[in-house]
Amino acid sequence: MDTAKLEENFDAKLLRNENIEPKDWMPDNYRKHVTRQVSQHAHSEIIGMLPEGNWITRAPSMRRKMVLLAKVQDEAGHGLYLYSAAETMGTSRDELLDQLNTGKAKYSSIFNYPTLTWSDMGAVGWLVDGAAIMNQVMLQRTSYGPYARAMVRICKEESFHQRQGFEIMQVLAAGTPAQKEMAQDSLNRWWWPSLMMFGPPDDQSPNTANAIKWKIKRESNDQLRQRFVNQTVPQAALLGLTVPDDALKWNEEKKGYDFGTPNWEEFNNVVRGNGPCNKERLAARNKAHSGGAWVRLAAATFAEKRNKAVAA
Ligand code: BYC
Questions:
Q1: Cα angle vertex 87, ends 147, 78, to 5°?
Q2: From 204's CA, which of 61, 79, 287, 289 has a CA 20 to 30 Å away?
Q3: What ligand 1 atom has the least distance to the C-alpha of 124?
């Protein structure tokens, strides 16, 4: 089939809302775009374990420790499904991990901020996982089949993560004045970076046009950010906490909140590698990767032996 016909079939599939599958023909730029987004997403899940992993040994009770441990393990699982989805596009996991470990690949800006107190575990679950779900619900209907299917399970787990974070905030906000103050401090520090998770404003988002055309993203960065604010502000009120934004105001006409502008200079700086924890995160990732070399070697050697035994 010539390229024009293949392209026509690809476009028709998208129009019928059918998934594109690994063996289907696809334009090179679609393959590149999906590989970029899915691998960045996988890296975010893996790096995202670090700020929370930091608190496993310091969780204030056995129950909290078990829940946090389970959550961090879930994030590892998400990374693995997503690397598998990215690999179906033809780039090997080794290559993808190399891009992460050498600092060539991006991962979500949010994970370059430090987790200073226990209530940050609440704020991360409530706000960071909350923002992640807001974005990921639409990704269950993304056009690339393996990515869409991975997102179904991920979304289920993320909603548990969001609930556990909100519950930590509830307990602290209803606790002693010092606990409530700690919860407020976490909200103050995590609010704006959470809004930045949705990416730059639509008029400065170079990838959105193609992402929408190819049904990779179903909604734009600004649409999702607005929905997150609308959903989260009443939750903060329920906690008795104050969202750190003087410009926040209900707008009856748009049936949503007006809100202030995130500091995009800070965002760009973090994405360029100069956030508070970028270097620490990459160093931890590289240490884990080299520390795990013997496990990868042992697993590969075992698989090779087993294959030989089966063949014999
Ligand atoms: N941070 O044209 P744009 C989790 C980059 S983890 C860093 O709007 P796009 C969790 C963007 O990559 C879940 N970089 O891009 C885990 C692009 O650069 P390149 C994380 C960002 O792709 C553990 C440039 O800026 N979720 O839930 O259309 C514990 C221009 O942006 C960011 C995902 O990964 C950012 N925040 O839209 C707890 C969701 N934003 O690649 C929780 C999947 C933008 O052109 N990803 N950039 O060099 C997406 O939905 C989209 O990629 C984005 C950006 C909405 C993030």
A1: 50
A2: 79
A3: 38
40 closest CA partner among 223, 211, 164, 215? 211
Whether the full predicted model's pTM is greater than 0.70, yes or no, is yes
User: Helix or strand or coil: residue 181?
Assistant: helix
CA distance 275 to 164: 27
Buried b (16+ CB within 10 A) or exposed e, 90-110: ebeeeebbebbbeeebbbbbb
* CA separation for the pair 38, 47 (Å, rounded): 14
Atom of ligand 1 nearest to the CA of 197: 36
Q: Give start and end residues of each alpha helix (H) in the chain.
A: 3-15, 28-47, 49-53, 62-87, 93-101, 119-123, 130-139, 145-173, 177-196, 208-213, 221-239, 264-269, 278-291, 293-311
pLDDT tens, residue order, the chain (312 aa): 799 999 999 999 999 999 999 999 999 999 999 999 999 999 999 999 999 999 999 999 999 999 999 999 999 999 999 999 999 999 999 999 999 999 999 999 999 999 999 999 999 999 999 999 999 999 999 999 999 999 999 999 999 999 999 999 999 999 999 999 999 999 999 999 999 999 999 999 999 999 999 999 999 999 999 999 999 999 999 999 999 999 999 999 999 999 999 999 999 999 999 999 999 999 999 999 999 999 999 999 999 999 999 888
Contact indicator for 186, 120 with CB cutoff of 8 Å: yes
- Point out the ligand 1 atom lying closest to the alpha carbon of residue 49: 23
> Which residue ranges have their beta carbon within 6 Å of ligand 1?
36-37, 40-41, 44-45, 48, 75, 106, 108-109, 128-129, 132, 135, 196-200, 205-208, 211, 217, 221, 271
Alpha-carbon dihedral sign for residues 132, 138, 141, 142: negative
